[in-house]
Amino acid sequence: MASFGTLLSGSGRLLRGLLAGPAATGWFRLPARGFREVVEIQDGKTTIIEGRITPTPKATPDPPNPVGQCPICRWNLKHKYTYEDVLLLSQFIRPHGGMLPRSITGLCQEEHRKIAECVKMAHRAGLFPNHRPRLPEGVVPKSKPTLNRYLTRWAPSSVKPICNRGRRWNKVGMAVGSPLLKDNVSYSRKPLKMYH
Amino acid sequence: WSSFAQWATFARMWYLLDGKMQPPGKLAAMASVKLQGLHKPVYHQLSDCGDHVVIMNTRHIAFSGNKWEQKVYSSHTGYPGGFRQVTAAQLHQKDPVAIVKLAVYGMLPKTLHRRTMMQRLHLFPDEDIPKDILQNLVEELPQPRKAPRRLDEYTQEEVEAFPRVWSP
To answer: Which of A87, A187, B44, B166 has the most C-beta neighbours closer than 10 Å?
Structure first.
């Protein structure tokens, strides 16, 4: 589910102590703060800008592996998720599609990078239609003919066409998927092809 | 071996393939197998045993990776300075059928029968297919790729049943 309006103070990297919660004994996490949102109310001539604490969802109790350091290890999902597992990925994104910082979610560095990459691929595949980026006020998006894609590694506007793919023994491959997900469990005998 | 049995064995089938959210290469592979007749035990290169294949929704095919921008289709008009290179995205906008057509053409055997097999391939960019072709269709082939579900396609119960992996 989308997390509503996570506002963080500018503390960033401050280590304030151990989290007194389920597992997480390794990395120091900031003390738990709930999700909050900013609400602007216009009362005739007065504008009230209010910060409200929204209902924060609680983590499901009893993970299969309570000894794990990050949520992925605790739930035994280490090499098992892809860009298609939107229900898992949506727990780590903001309402407009951005990733939440590692200090809040408690993920380890490699898993954070893998999830970020999967979230990017899912956005490009159009699997998050309601998490589009916020546009400045008054801007109406022009409807362009969209192309369907999946497993896109690079941002579409940043890629150049490969005019010459090379000789038969030395072809330039087109990148598919991401090398971060190389170690994912594959239930069919076929190896993952990173370059087509 | 009666003539009725011969007619029944070598009758031509019409297959339907939906290209929505499918990679065009995999569609082309399935189509080329059916067009050549390789799926039949009575296959022979000279016995003209290929079937018809109708591919619809070619406008909604999905390339994996960044192929829409990276894949380049080259051609030469024959005149000097006539080397044209277009990306897959540009070609698809000009002609929504061309990508699948070129893919199938490249996968068929490079013989003189290729042109007749291409005549038996029918491509439609959207769902509307002429009535006479619709009447001929026998079987719909299963799609090669299972398209993933978007976040809004999950029901509220499924979203709630999925465990929350972390809490702030």
So the answer is: B166
Residue A190, CA distances (Å) to A24, A56, B62 in order: 36, 42, 21
Task: Please check whether residue A87 is in contact with residue A78, taking contact to mean a CB–CB distance below 8 angstroms.
Answer: no
The nearest CA of chain B is from the CA of A109 a distance in Å of 16
Cα distance between residue A176 and residue B66, in whole Å = 7
- A75 to chain B: which residues are within 8 Å by CB? 163, 165
Using the beta-carbon criterion (under 8 Å), do B66 and A87 form an inter-chain contact?
A: no
User: Is B69 within 8 Å of A161 when comparing Cβ atoms?
Assistant: yes
**Residues of B with Cβ-Cβ distance to A126 under 8 angstroms:** 150
Closest CA of chain B from A6, distance in Å? 10
Residue B115, judged by CB atoms within 10 A of its CB (0-12, 13-18, 19+), counts as: exposed
The pTM for the full model equals: 0.87
Q: Which residues of A touch B72 (CB under 8 A)?
A: 161-163, 165
Which 8-state DSSP code applies to residue A182? T
Any idea which residue has 């994104």 for tokens? A93
Cβ–Cβ below 8 Å for A58 and B164: yes
Helical residues (DSSP H) of chain B, grouped into ranges: 3-9, 24-36, 67-70, 88-94, 98-107, 113-119, 131-136, 156-161
Quick one: pLDDT at residue A27? Answer: 60
B98 CB neighbour count, 10 Å cutoff: 16
Residues A65, B163: Cα–Cα separation, whole Å: 14
For residue B87, pLDDT over 60 is answered with yes
Instruction: Outline where A98-161 has alpha helix (H).
Output: 102-105, 109-125
- Cα A63 to Cα B163: distance, rounded to the nearest angstrom: 9
Chain B within 8 Å of A156 (Cβ-Cβ)?
A: yes
Q: Phi then psi for A52, rounded to 5 degrees?
A: -120, 145
Chain A residues touching B70 at Cβ < 8 A: 159-162, 174
On whether any CB of chain B is under 8 Å from the CB of A173, the answer is no
pLDDT in tens, B21-56: 999 999 999 999 999 999 999 999 999 999 999 999
